[in-house]
Write a structure and sequence with these properties.
315 residues, 2 domains, 5-stranded antiparallel sheet, 4-stranded mixed sheet, 21% helix, 22% strand
């Protein structure tokens, strides 16, 4: 019967691009130069990748196009093969948890899935809307009296930073940010208030207004273009939104997991589990803040998917 007959992907190509990887897909379908290699916005390609974000790695089939990314199936591959694929990624597996398949997995797919009549290992995935619908924040309103013991205003660095890992460690401890790996006992006392627009909250301590939601699936370069667009159109009545720096993004981290399973106040959307920040890692890389793991980390700024949450300084 075969994989594509099982999935019934009508009108689309029925072959796998064995050379495509999560990393290469960004250059092909997101960058301007890459688009020259794609015939039309309706073109779709399929490739396998290993999703290692959960407790156990999963083998998935991706449908990819220009501004289109959809996981169409999970393939129940042997756990020991998946584990070897992840382990062979080395240190990068700690941070970039979407991996290309290796030769062992490719051969297993060719032998057991691609043209097999046994479809029991192929689990089609129905597309469903799992976005976090933002409701009431549970925060005090911006017009309510502030507590008497409110910390003094702390102005965090807002210009682009360039930090080696040791400098990031020092900065985290200097401001006593909570970081589950570097400073788990840290506690930065922010004080969030609801601005009443459904879209933003403000930290009175840092003087930063934040998006409750954010921006999804883009590289550092594409995030910059999206910010320009947002500021041209205006968001929540303002047009001076920007990426936060590493310390600004760290200031939102909390010591305990929220009901949304993130180290972040539940007033914020859970749809952005980690965000890119305006801080470069020397000698190479980009800093991120991971609200699901409660830590700062660095990785490539050209990963094929990412998230942003913008801020602005109030006057």
């Amino acid at each position: 019967m075969g994989l594509f007959n099982t999935l019934n992907l009508e009108g689309n190509p029925t072959t796998v691009d064995w050379e495509m990887t999560p990393e290469y897909s960004f250059g092909t379908f997101e960058s301007w130069g890459g688009r020259e290699r794609v015939r039309s916005s309706n073109e779709r390609i399929y490739y396998f990748f290993v999703d290692a974000w959960g407790e156990k790695p999963k083998l998935c089939l991706m449908e990819r196009g220009i501004k289109h990314a959809k996981v169409v199936a999970e393939i129940k591959a042997p756990a020991e093969i998946l584990d070897r694929c992840v382990q062979n990624q080395g240190k990068v597996a700690l941070f970039e948890r979407t991996h290309a398949i290796n030769e062992e997995l490719k051969q297993w797919l060719l032998d057991n899935i691609m043209e097999s009549d046994d479809t029991s290992r192929v689990i089609p995935l129905e597309e469903e809307d799992r976005r976090d619908r933002l409701g009431v924040t549970g925060l005090p309103g911006c017009d309510e009296p502030l507590p008497d013991d409110l910390p003094v205003r702390i102005v965090l660095p807002s210009a682009t930073l360039e930090l080696v890992e040791e400098e990031a460690d020092t900065m985290i401890k200097e401001y006593n940010f909570t970081d589950q790996k570097r400073n788990p006992a840290g506690l930065f006392r922010n004080y969030l208030v609801d601005n009443g627009d459904g879209l933003t909250v403000t930290d009175v301590v840092t003087g930063l207004m934040w998006q409750r939601g954010g921006l999804d699936i883009m590289s550092h370069r594409m995030l910059g273009k999206e910010i320009e667009k947002i500021n041209t159109q205006g968001f929540a009545g303002h047009n001076d939104w920007r990426m936060p720096t590493l310390p600004e993004a760290m200031s939102l981290l909390e010591q305990t997991l929220s009901r949304k399973n993130q180290y972040l106040h539940p007033a914020f959307s859970a749809d952005q589990p980690f965000i890119m920040v305006d801080s470069v890692r020397r000698p190479g890389g980009q800093w991120f803040v991971d609200y699901k793991q409660g830590t700062a980390y660095w990785s490539s700024g050209t990963i094929p998917g990412g998230f942003g949450r913008l801020c602005r300084r109030i006057t």
